[in-house]
């Protein structure tokens, strides 16, 4: 059984191990004869720890393997230092020793990271389950976990997450209205990071209905960013759940909010729904008044027409493409709803969710709704031209 007193020493051990992880990384990259025979900070730090390992590491059984690697490192360094001369035998001995030092340094770095991951996840899960936990500390732990997962796939880290049931705990926090919005948002970012980490493993663990409702219920820019990301990663099944739960009207209402960032993110979500959604999703958007909303947004000072920049002109020359894209990007920074009707139509046209005949039918319906929502023939003609040029005929 692990000594409870060892947990009290964790902050000290963590500080030491973080420094040693950096030292082992440097040594792994530069395991030279010169560094072994000098006062290299990496060599010095690692060998000092080897000397003190009994007192620093002995309380934690998870660090036993690290102690062994440190002892091996000391042996290899001493061998390298004793090597003299310039003959073939000396040359080969130095090559073998430096290779061994690099390999052991890599093992040391892996062991240290595994310990840090184990302790961090344990602290996070305990904090999330502990009532009255300091909010700033919880957000720090959640952000630290998100950053770690975002570094890329790691099998050992995945095993720790699965063993700790971290995903279900994070999702429970996200869906808990009694938690603060700040903590729920941080948990949402962690859920999205885990899906990026390994979609094949974690998408199946998502409680889609509860997650969608929780993200929309928070009505924040952070929650909408996560919603957009989840649509991109889980695609049609996630959009199907949005439709089945009747959440399309809730997303459409966000286009009418006074918060510009929220409005822009709601439009981003709608574009993703248009790309991945099936027929039912498209129908729900159009029946909910999407085209009328988009025409109004395009008419506003935040809108405009990209057709004037050649965005939808068939004769646009390839040599001018990069220049046009830069102009368009600058324009969209200040006019996020420029040509928003055509941009939505393009998503339907090039998307994955609709059959070809359904795409043609939706295009015709969009054109009809544009005519009904426009305040003049000129406005209708411009938007219709964009829709026709923006997607294939």
Automatic annotation (TrEMBL):
Q: Which domain of life is it from?
A: Eukaryota
Question: Which InterPro entries does this one have?
Answer: ARM-like, ARM-type_fold
List the Gene3D superfamilies. Leucine-rich Repeat Variant
Q: Which residues cross the membrane?
A: none
Q: Where is the signal peptide?
A: none
What SUPFAM superfamilies has UniProt attached to this entry? ARM repeat
Task: Cite the PANTHER family for this sequence.
Answer: ARMADILLO-TYPE FOLD PROTEIN-RELATED, ATAXIN-10 DOMAIN-CONTAINING PROTEIN
Q: What is this protein called?
A: ARM repeat superfamily protein
